[in-house]
Amino acid sequence: xxxxxxxxxxxxxxxxxxxxxxxxxxxxxxxxxxxxxxxxxxxxxxxxxxxxxxxxxxxxxxxxxxxxxxxxxxxxxxxxxxxxxxxxxxxxxxxxxxxxxxxxxxxxxxxxxxxxxxxxxxxxxxxxxxxxxxxxxxxxxxxxxxxxxxxxxxxxxxx
Length: 159
Prior knowledge:
Layout: H1 2-9, H2 11-16, H3 20-39, H4 51-65, H5 79-102, H6 112-115, H7 117-120, H8 122-132, H9 138-158
């Protein structure tokens, strides 16, 4: 209830300073490029992960919904540092996709390090979002999600 009262009183700040803004590039990237990954054979066959898939999706909802309730402060002394982490993490994540999309037959794209990179590199920008939103618990949620997501990706790629 306190959260809802705070949002109602400061709705403009919640609209312009919530952590979802940091996820927008990720959402757009996935919308634009996800089909390109499957077109080069990356996890093209559906694999049922059973309970692991259910757990992954529960954590996925949490990791992507929570930033809505985290406010970032442009004037915070650490904003530039963590925003830099966010930019670097996002660029590493995007690069991991580009290697798989544009060099699918290359030796590097066929290493487990690169094949799993779209799953595990997310920890960098998730960590930064948690720090930007000044939420000490978000990084734990992120770590659990990334471990589960990377495990699921490994199973899907192995299947």
